[in-house]
Design goal:
This protein is mainly alpha-helical. It has eight helices and six strands. The strands form two sheets. Strands 1-5-6 form a three-stranded mixed sheet, covered by helices on one side. The chain has a three-stranded antiparallel sheet with strand order 2-3-4. The structure holds zinc ion.
């Protein structure tokens, strides 16, 4: 799926295009074939880390005498710096929130698909609307041809409307095609997200520089903030699928503790914890 190839229609898309594209861009990045500049293997979080004090990207350096790496804020005078070892450990702790017990895979998958099917229901309506519009455009095209044949309109007028109707018909046909692919792709995205999250955080730890970066960017598309005072991370934007995991884990915990209202709470998850749906 090349974003540039996506055709913007006159009708509301069946699945929010930004959501769709972001899931796919991120998963494709993760899938590999992604060019990465030569970098210091030990500092995969360079640029990905933002200084919570001033908002600048953090860079890294090596203290040769000690043989130790550090991350530091790029801004001159901002004293935000911390050892790579500590920041990596803290990142693994953060990743722990996005993993879950393998035993829960079936229920998590069901929950994700419930969320997806909620979107799908809305989309079915959009699909019907497109089909109605398509039928009406085809009728208009037939009508204009008939009028031209009968000599009621001239060639110029006929060509003008014929081309317009044909372009609109083509557009709608493309959108209907796309919607089919989008749904099955979103289901694949759920599987990919689940498989990846089961292996966190060890997968990140074991990965090389490039893969570490892809995992980081997949989960946190805009990086994460490191707060020196609290000596901890702050996350703003989280991949929507992954952002559901801490929430669902919380529900499961509640269920274990006897919260019988468990399943009733699932549909309330639309925008969890104040995260915008556009933050895939
Ligand atoms: Zn700073």
């Amino acid at each position: 799926m090349v974003p540039g190839e996506m055709i913007e229609g006159v009708h509301p898309p069946l699945i929010s295009k930004s959501i769709f594209l972001k899931v796919h861009q991120n998963l494709e990045k993760f899938g590999g074939g992604y060019k990465i500049d030569l970098e210091v293997e030990e500092l995969p979080m360079k640029q990905f880390l933002k200084c919570d004090c001033c908002g600048n990207s953090m860079t890294g350096y090596l203290v040769k005498k000690k043989g130790l790496y550090y991350y530091k804020c790029n801004l001159k005078g901002c004293a935000n710096n911390r050892s790579q070892k500590v920041l990596h450990e803290k990142f693994e702790q953060l990743l722990l929130k996005f993993t879950f017990d393998k035993k829960l895979v079936p229920i998590f998958k069901k929950m994700f698909l419930t969320l997806l099917s909620q979107k799908t229901e809305v989309n079915e309506e959009g699909k019907k609307e497109l089909q109605v519009n398509l039928a009406s455009l085809r009728k208009k095209l037939d009508g204009i041809e008939e009028r031209f044949v009968l000599g009621e309109i001239d060639q110029t007028l006929y060509t003008k409307f014929r081309d317009k109707f044909r372009a609109n018909i083509h557009q709608i046909e493309l959108e209907l095609d796309n919607s089919q692919n989008q749904l099955s792709n979103l289901e694949k995205a759920v599987d990919k997200c689940i498989n990846l999250s089961l292996e966190l955080p060890s997968l990140w730890r074991k990965s090389n520089f490039g893969r570490k970066q892809r995992i980081q960017n997949l989960l946190f598309p805009e990086g994460i903030q490191y707060n020196r005072k609290k000596d901890d991370y702050r996350t703003s934007k989280i991949n929507l699928l992954f952002s559901a995991i801490p929430y669902l884990t919380g529900l499961v915990e509640g269920y274990k503790k006897g919260d019988s209202n468990f399943s009733a709470k699932i549909p309330t998850w639309v925008v969890p914890l104040g995260i915008e749906p556009s933050t895939y």
